[in-house]
Amino acid sequence: MSFSLDSCAPLPVCESRTFSMNSLDRIVDVSKYLGDPSKADWVSQGEPIAYDGNVLLTMPPRSVGTVLASTVNIWYGNIKGRFKTSRSAGVVTAFILLSDVKDEIDYEFVGTQLTTAQTNYYWQGITDYTNSANISLSDTFENFHEYEIQWTPDQITWLVDGQVGRTKKRADTWDAKNNRWNFPQTPARLQISIWPGGADTNKAGTIEWAGGPIDWTSTPDMKSPGYYYATFGEISIECYNASSPPGTNLHKSYWYDNIRATNDTVVDGDKNTILSSFIATGLNMTAGASSDSPASSDVATVPGGSTSGTGSTSGATSDTSSGSGSSSSSSSSSSSSASCGDGFSQDCSNSKSGAAVEKVMGASALAGVVALGALLIL
């Protein structure tokens, strides 16, 4: 929990962008990003690599995978991604929207169910087993598909290859007992990831949901190229562009003016989003301004991977089209062991079983902790 609403730095507003995802040039390691969306399209932890005109999110043996998160925040809009998922038991690919208060809209893919896209949504991280639904399609590892989320104040629509697979209306989410709409409604980052649902440190329900324990040695991908991976092509963000709230992007930043954290408490204003250092907070954005820059992270160590551009902080402005994608203030790290922890590592402690998915921090096991880390940076 934050000390106060003002402890959280304001969030960069939505900006419509298209990302070809053919290089790592504007993907920046989380240890280097201080909240300026003009300097990066994605913030990463883990080991992304550029390969054959795409970006691979990789999961080397005994790691917790890779996550990229957008630097801009989306307050309703249309999000598309063209990608191939990972495969094998225990390996999960995710394409989600996640806000700092755990509003969430998901696509998730289990590596043993390659003809199923799982969809889900959450309001402020509250578990509801009835929120999930599946969409059938052709093999998600072998084939590129275009996954789309159309999100408005009144409705969420999930589409695959331009065909509507599911629709959820806000009107159907009224919670009369608590007098509220249990509907995602706050500015969210786009996050793409590969993570180990089948890691042996996870709860039994999570491992079962993920298709079973991960084999770190003898599967085709572990034999060659030596890591699990998901392949991401073009991604686009189209803002909702409302002329009045909710869903505006008229100014520089979003923040909350009430702890309720609903769409009527979101302010679209002109506060700064850039921290001077990693000891700065929303209460003191310039703290540590004279400190040295954060040390560079180690380069990726994925076998055969290209690390060109990783962690770049070039001064390129944020164009409407770029080589990598949109950046975020947080993500989940690759580690020497597949344990799950705090900060920017993946939180795999949730229990999932069958269609009923018990989630502690949101619809993706990795995404919840990512959001918590984001509160401290953006």
Structural overview:
- The protein is built from 3 helices and 24 strands.
- It has helices at residues 204-209, 220-223, 367-377; strands at 11-12, 17-19, 27-29, 42-45, 47-51, 54-59, 66-70, 77-84, 91-99, 104-110, 116-122, 133-136, 145-152, 155-160, 163-169, 174-175, 180-181, 188-196, 228-239, 253-256, 266-269, 321-322, 352-353, 356-357.
- The strands form 5 sheets. Strands 2, 5, 6, 8, 13, 14, 15, 19 and 22 form a 9-stranded mixed beta sheet that branches. An 8-stranded mixed beta sheet has the order 3-4-7-18-9-10-11-12, with helices on one face.
Q: SSE order in H/E notation?
A: EEEEEEEEEEEEEEEEEEHHEEEEEEH
What would you report as the Rg, rounded to the nearest angstrom? 19 Å
CATH topology: Jelly Rolls
Q: Provide the structure class.
A: mainly beta
* Shape by Cα distribution: globular
**Could you list the spans in which at least 5 consecutive residues all have pLDDT below 50?**
291-322, 325-378
Number of strands: 24
Mean pLDDT value: 83
SS element count, helices? 3
Instruction: Provide the β-strand percentage band.
Output: 25-35%
List the helices and strands and how they pair.
Layout: E1 11-12, E2 17-19, E3 27-29, E4 42-45, E5 47-51, E6 54-59, E7 66-70, E8 77-84, E9 91-99, E10 104-110, E11 116-122, E12 133-136, E13 145-152, E14 155-160, E15 163-169, E16 174-175, E17 180-181, E18 188-196, H1 204-209, H2 220-223, E19 228-239, E20 253-256, E21 266-269, E22 321-322, E23 352-353, E24 356-357, H3 367-377
Parallel strand pairs: 2-22, 3-4
Antiparallel strand pairs: 1-20, 2-19, 4-7, 5-6, 6-19, 7-18, 8-13, 8-19, 9-10, 9-18, 10-11, 11-12, 13-14, 14-15, 16-17, 20-21, 23-24
